[in-house]
């Protein structure tokens, strides 16, 4: 598996995507909800083998979501959750886009570029919503060879620059899906 780390070091690095046609809205999920966040995590990442949080307890989810500077922004297509971006403030003005993606049924509709643009802009102005946090000086993320085929392209088109590449062997695991057997292995 190859993991690429990308960054923006100024708000002017962001190259926003065009807004998609139709009734697409992006709303901050302001109430920490382990149930909703786990739904988003498994629905978006189930077919691309997101597994690191599957074993988390309710309390672990709540502790992650209820930290200052952690935000979840959800894209809705005609009222239905289509995808999300999770931001996490870190030391020294760094903000990580921890998770980003679309539920498979919503991919290919131009929602992803818009959601990434919007989420990145919210990373840049995160400290305005969280008194006591340092202003954002860097937004970063990582993507890997297991992610969707257009993920890297989307990050580069939004103005992210590659700063690290790592390759490692990883055991093959079954595609977990949002529930067991949701996607073919």
TrEMBL record:
Protein species of origin: Streptomyces thermospinosisporus
Domain of life: Bacteria
Residue span, N-acetyltransferase domain: 24-185
InterPro entries, per the entry: Acyl_CoA_acyltransferase, GNAT_dom
Name assigned to this protein: GNAT family N-acetyltransferase
UniProt-listed Pfam families: Acetyltransf_1
